[in-house]
Amino acid sequence: MLKYFLIFWAFAVVFWAALAGPRGSTFVKPPYEVFPDMDRQEKLKPQSASAFFSDGMGSRPTIDGAVPMGLSIPDRPAQQADGGVLSGSIDRVEFSYGNGYFYTGIIGEYYGDGLPDELAIDADFLLRGKERYAIHCAICHGIAGDGEGVVKPYGAGFVSMANFLESAFHREDSETYRPDGSIFQTITNGRGLMGPYGANINVRDRWAIVAYIRALQMGVHSGSDEGGAESSDSSPSDEGEGQRDDS
Ligand code: HEC
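A: This is the predicted complex of the input protein with heme C.
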């Protein structure tokens, strides 16, 4: 009986010491951290002072000639632009906050098809789309649009990027056909594992990318009568070659 009493007593002492022991004492060393979770780092908070720079400020002044992202930030929403008429003001209004097809890819309750009237479609427009596609989309969807981008091997076979050249994707009689407005929406808002690009790519460039994807698909379409993308040899883009040297 005494044995149990002593065990109980020992536990009670340890419990009390653990809970109430250090109360009121001041520690000078930081507590031992098993997972510091990057609580302390070499960094500067916005607007904070810093001894590192000679002027004592953490924030750095803007470098002469710096331009904001190469875009003109609109001074008022599209709805208010020039009495509600969008064309003519489009140079100033580049990101989606209007309601029209140009800004949403949607007409009524459905995705629209075809490029909006606000755009002048010429060779430069397509080249712009090609360039933007190469910057933003090619790493995943492949430079040829076949879904074989350089990051594909890292998806361990679980992640499949859309293959734009598949007939299911680009033939209008296919049940899973994606109209232009749908592709525009996917760029704007993302889908599934694909992130949204609405904040990175302005409206005009999004449409330019859509147009370029159509051009890629047309190349495949005209290349074979069976409208499939069975082989990437029919790829319209020669740059496709360098991309797939991993296989
Ligand atoms: C980080 C990789 C990645 C990048 C970059 C990327 N995508 Fe995707 N995309 C995906 C994945 C993954 C899917 C499949 C999403 C799903 O169905 O879950 C997809 C799907 C799509 C689809 C098909 C959506 C549908 O209706 O099923 C379209 C269209 C598309 N992407 C266009 C683009 C365009 C245009 C760009 C460049 C602006 C782009 N993607 C950039 C990964 C990416």
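Residues 81-93, 224-247 have pLDDT under 50 and may be disordered. The pocket of heme C is lined by residues 136-137, 139-141, 159, 161-162, 178, 182-183, 186-187, 191-194, 197, 209 (CB under 6 Å).
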